Amino acid sequence: xxxxxxxxxxxxxxxVTLNPDAYEVTLFKGLNWKPPSSAWIGLLSAIMALSxxxxxxxxxxxxxxxxxxxLRVRSSPxxxxxxxxxxxxxxxxxxxxxxxxxxxxxxxxVSAAWVGGSTGGGTTGGGSPSGLLRFGISGPGVVSVQxxxxxxxxxxxxxxxxxxSVTTSSVRRxxxxxxxxxxxxxxxxxxxxLY
Length: 195
Hints:
Elements: H1 2-13, H2 38-59, E1 61-64, E2 71-74, E3 81-85, E4 90-98, E5 101-104, E6 109-111, E7 115-116, H3 140-151, H4 165-177, H5 188-194
Antiparallel strand pairs: 1-4, 1-7, 2-3, 4-5, 5-6
């Protein structure tokens, strides 16, 4: 009890005086951050806008990444084939995806599993650097495979985007039915047979 009384007494009679100038940040004190005129403000705004647009545009740039064969271009997801694109072709995406399909800027669709994330090389989002899809991997490439296996009657689960045991067994059934090496891994041969 004495301790509480002593603390109360000392807190009540202490006088705190803070000097705000002592806490002033002087690191940038000599710099003048204001632009000299309104023309500079407009120029800086234009530079920022162009930077943002160029970043957004490069995010939609992609390329065809197949096992060497051509990628079929379709009129809609799972629609009629209207053309093909060679491996390595730079493409422009609209940013729309549907059930494992990616829309091109011209309105046609391609399998998202065969589209690289940036112009000139890279990995498919959600795939592996080697391009193989196997147990433990997750992402849009896995969703595309799950949807395609469902369309063909080999997969009855929910397209989660995770390559788990259900997807592995579905891939194995598909590989066995199509005379492929049965390893449960979606490599170039299995991918070519799927799409």
